[in-house]
Amino acid sequence: MNTSLAANASSLPRLESDLYESVVDKDGRYGGVVADERWAQEIKRLARERNAVILAHNYQLPEIQDIADYTGDSLGLSRIAAETDADVIVFCGVHFMAETAKILSPEKTVLIPDERAGCSLADSITADELAEWKAENPGALVVSYVNTTADVKALTDICCTSSNAVDVVKSIPEDQEILFNPDQFLGAHVRRETGRDNIKVWAGECHVHANINGEELAHRAEENADSQLFIHPECGCANSAIYLAGEGTIEPERVQMLSTGEMLTEAQKLKENKPNGKVLVATEVGMLHQLRKAAPDVDFEPVNDRASCSYMKLITPAALLRCLVEGTDEVDVEPDVADKARASVERMIAIGNPGGGE
296 with 277: CB under 8 angstroms? Predict the structure, then answer.
């Protein structure tokens, strides 16, 4: 491998691969390797040697999704991996997702192919900021979106996903004040659906979803009058979609607020009932790959074709190869932090709806 960066320390032995010499670290990402059949076979061989399970989030590059053992949302993937007999979890996603896998599988080694894959939403609140917010609101209960760091989860009373956030909040007594973090758009959705006015919402956002705006949605919906709308509640256009539906600008029956997992469920229904329809999708563009696989005859188009997460796309074919060869980048979570974070996730699961995706 040609790189000016020293490899991170790893608890795993290095494996040999002829392809590894082609890997380069240039312009802040790993490259030099083509995702061809030779690469695919080498990835599978290395994963077998490590007894590794490869997980890929729905927003990953198509070639990464296709080589993975499991594709889906971060919490769902982490729960699946915990049930496997794999010794190593390779999480093709962003850093907080690998942390979640480690929280649920403390006995397994967890790797992320490029530790530089961060998350603007997870970074929008720190543990110190949450601790200060809690101190300012004594007695309030903290509900954190699963798209948060392990340190934030450890200070959380109960986690949620975008698909079960409303159910989680409804499970809490109505007179209980809630601090909801970090996504302001998901928080607004929860407020609207529950009708509660005692929810304080942190002003965080995913920069990719936030930039899918209401004006763009209205324009695309007008251009495609027969299309359905799949809208992720993290999107900046989410509130606009509800408003436009309420005003009659967009027919309410066209608008569906869905997590990534729920989008796939609805895509499978379309395959059976309306296979030649069109759907405008408001979320990160990587999701289109799974939707098109689920319902090949449905025309899935992005509301914003520039809604691509540069962090997600750091997990390249070269990065995955390097990860399996070097046994890096390893992700660890301090045991006491992991125990507290795990408890907040388990409280969510105990409600009975573990969620269907971010």
Answer: no
